[in-house]
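Ticket #4471: structure export looks truncated?
Reporter: QA, pipeline team
Priority: medium

Steps to reproduce: submit the single chain below to the structure queue and open the exported record.
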Amino acid sequence: MNRRNHSTFARRAQSPLEYERVATVISQHLLSRYPGDFHRTVAVREFVERVCLRHIELGLADPNFESNLCSGDDARYWQRLSEALLVHELLDADLNLRPSRNGPDFLIQHEGRNIWIEVICPEPTGVPSDWLQCNPGAVTTFPHEAILLRWTAAIKEKAEKLLGNPDKGNVGYVGKGVVAADDPYVIAINGRRLRGKYFSSITGISQFPFAVEAVFAVGAFAIQIDRCTLKAIGSEHQHRPVIQKPNGSEVPAHTFLDPAFRPISAIWAADVDEMWAIGNGKSMAVVHNPNAANPIAPGLLPAYWDYVAMENGDDGYVLERRPGRLKAGV
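Actual output as written to the record:
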C-alpha cells in the first residue's frame, strides 16, 4: 500500500506520524505472522496489510483495532481481520459504509435506511483438534453438532448485543437508542476458525449452511426405509429444534421461528481469510429471517447465495436458494 495516501486517517488521528506508526506496527506483526520471501507468502502479507490499512484509513476501524490485531492473541486477530475482510467485500460491492463508533461494527446507509452489521468470528471451543488439524489421507469424524453449537452461540451473543439481556443487566443497542426500532440488523459470522484444513466451515450435515440449521431447525437429510420391503419410501430433512450440549442441556436451533428474534434481519454467513490473495475460494451466504421486522432485500449483501423462506400456505415455509450478488461458483 502507498503509505502517503493517508489523509483520511491523518485527519482523524490528528497526526500523519501516527498513521506511519500504526502502519509500521501492522507491517512488522504481519511479517512475524507470515514470515518468508516465498511469493505466495508475500502476496498474503501484502493483501492483509492493504485491507487492514484501508479499514483504518476510512475511519471504519475501532480505536483498538491495531492493538488487537497485533496482540499475538489468535481470537483477537481473527475477530479484527474478519471485520477488515468483510469491510473489503462491502466496499467492493459499492455499498455506502459509515463509521460506527458506539454501535454495531458496520453501518450501511442504503436507500434512506440505516443497516447495521455486527461481526463475530467464533472460537473453536469444543471442536475436536483432529478435525481442525486434519491432514490429507487422515480419517476424521465431521463434528457437525460441535460446530453448530458455535454458530448458535454466536447468534445468541450478537442477538443479545441488539436486544439486551435483563438477567445480565445488558440493555442492548435498541435500549440505548443506538439502533432504531425500524433499522435492519444483520449478524455476520465468519466460521473460518471452525473449519478443518481442507473443508469449508459454511456447510452443515444437512448440506445447507450451518446458519440455516441454526435458525430454521433443519437437521440431517434422512431416508425412510420400509421394514418389510427394505425399500426407500420417502426422504426429508429431519426437524431439529434443539441441539444437545455435551453436559446434556439443550440449545434452541430455531431462532427465525421465534417471534422474539424478529429484530434480527438476516445472518450473513462467511468463511473468509487471508488466502484470497493466492486464489483460494471464499464462501458467503445470506440467510434471511422471514419474520423480520425490518427485512433486507436478497442480493444486497455480497454473497454467492441468498436463502429465503417463503410461506407455503400450510403454516410452514419452503426454503429457496437464490443466486446472490456475487457470481456463484467463484
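Status: closed, not a bug. The export was complete when the record was re-opened. Leaving a note from the reviewer for reference: The chain has nine helices and twelve strands.
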